Amino acid sequence: MIFKKKFIKESTSENAFKAICFVAILLPILLIIVLIGDALIDGWSRLNLDFLLGLPSRKAEIAGLLPALMGSFYLMLLTAAIAIPLGLGAAIYLEEYASESFLTSLIEINISNLAGVPSIIYGLLGLEIFVRMSHMGRSLLAGACTLALLLLPMVIMVSRESLRVVPKSLREACFALGADRFQTIWKVVLPMSFPGALTGIILSMARAIGETAPLITIGALTYVAFLPDSIHSAFTAMPIQIFNWISRPQKDFHINAAAGIIVLLLVMLILNALAIWLRARLQRKVYW
Questions:
Q1: CB–CB of 199/279 below 8 Å?
Q2: Are 272 and 206 in contact (CB under 8 A)?
Q3: Residues 246-284: pLDDT tens digits?
Q4: Is a pLDDT exceeding 50 seen at residue 3?
Q5: Residue of 192, 194, 244, 197 whose CA lies nearest to 216
Q6: CA 253 to CA 46: how far, in whole Å?
Q7: Coil, helix or strand at residue 230
Q8: Cβ proximity of 211 and 237 under 8 Å
Q9: Where along the chain do its domains lie?
Q10: Does the pLDDT of residue 145 top 70, yes or no?
Q11: CATH: 3.20.20.140, 2.30.38.10, 2.40.128.130, 1.10.3720.10. Which one for 51-287?
């Protein structure tokens, strides 16, 4: 009888805990649905080719998103070209070559801490190092270097976790067959860890494409009526353009901002879907 009462009490507590967890999941989902629905209602009427391929204008009804769209595209290409090789190289060194020491522990602690630093701090760092000290100006290259700094800790951590998943027995088998450390890493460890690392990197890029604070801090332009023609060109990006539109008092510009939010969300969803697809495809190639 005592056992039965205790079981009923535990079951009641477990059900209450499940209900709390369910509400904790449901509330953010409902909030996201409401926000996305509000953006769709406001901005759906502006989603057309004229909006996507048009240039910004002081008249809301003819203003377009093309310079911001292309600016974000070029910015992400440059950011990936800078952050991915440096992040992967740092992860390989720390995981495969570096021995345990005070310096290595200090580097690992700092990388973990840097992953949680607010993005505006990276913007201030980029403003001082790249815009002023390196004389890059308010260019695409300066913006890409700033976002690369933002992504580097995440790329390093994700890549290291992927490298750790590869069994040590595979490394030992390569050494037993006469392979050196470089051949083992290049031929076995990297192909095995690449799907997980690539997924994390693409998800990090999806986060970076929506960053506004670092770009505003380094002085990215809010009104650009031309497409970037080089890495030293002035630029804008989708978050900056949306911020510009939403800060204006006219309601028509708010509609444009809602349409820009929908486009930005679609780009982020495509990047997330690409990460999932690439992971599944690459894992099939690795294991089969």
A1: yes
A2: yes
A3: 888 888 888 888 888 899 888 888 887 887 787 777 766
A4: no
A5: 244
A6: 11
A7: coil
A8: no
A9: 2-46, 51-287
A10: yes
A11: 1.10.3720.10
